[in-house]
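Researcher: Here's a chain I'd like modeled. Treat it as a single chain, no partners, no ligands.
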Amino acid sequence: MSQWTTDAIGDQSGRRFLITGATGGLGTETARELLRHGASLVLTARNADKAKATEATLRKEAPDADIEVVALDLADLAQVERAADEVRERWDRIDVLVNNAGIMIPPFRRTADSFELQIGTNHLGHFAWTARLWPLLAASQARVVTIASLAHTAARRVDLRSLTPEGAPRRYQRWPVYAESKLANLQFAQELHRRTQAAGSGVVSVAAHPGFASTELTRTGWSLGGLGPVGFVMHQGTRVIAQSARDGALPQLQAATDPALTGGEYLGPQGFRGLRGRPGKAGMTRAARDPEQAAALWEASEKAVGVAFDVTA
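Model: Modeled as a single isolated chain. Structure tokens:
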């Protein structure tokens, strides 16, 4: 089988892609490549100034591009609801949702709703976002792309107590918690696939990871304080030895556009230990594939965000 390249994306004119976290790294590179193929874009961003700058940059490269921006802070469930309502009011179709935004290894912080920041942003925010967009996604027979990470392999399960404002009764360790948040991403993607398949829905759920890519994600942790020089060195080191954000975006671009994918697939780099290289099918852990864990996560997530996510509705 030949290796997938962006030449395979084809003409995306008339198709609308909704991308979270589009103001840097993988999100910007995904948006840039989709624009080259004629896609219409809705980009979400937490920071208004960065959103304007990103939009201006993309418009310089594609002056006639169809680009819209929606303000979204995944760490605030009220904002998630508002942003989802805005999307549903403004557009009657979303062809592909790319849940790309995330935060990595910050010191202990809480979301606006008192959840630990990593699980609250990376998983619960996107869970609530996708649930509130569901009527539009279902009507569009959309594709939902969830961005996970190789870090999911470091977690055997998600501590469901972390999906409560009280949190898990354990000492906060940023790396294990990050790993659990990325395992939650994969379990969500797989459970969404199982549920849509059972319901006979036309929605397709796939997942992807970038391998080891130089993005702004490593900055999110140390910029909040707590890591100091170690975090700065890690961020700079990543920029030196990792593959580019453009290459890191290839798996999610394939996940978003490859018509051969029918749901349940997980894509990532095919090079050394999945760290770099051309995109293709990636392996996931037994925990990521565990339907009982995923169903329990889904139920706990519904309770946490206060939204019933019924894919048959």
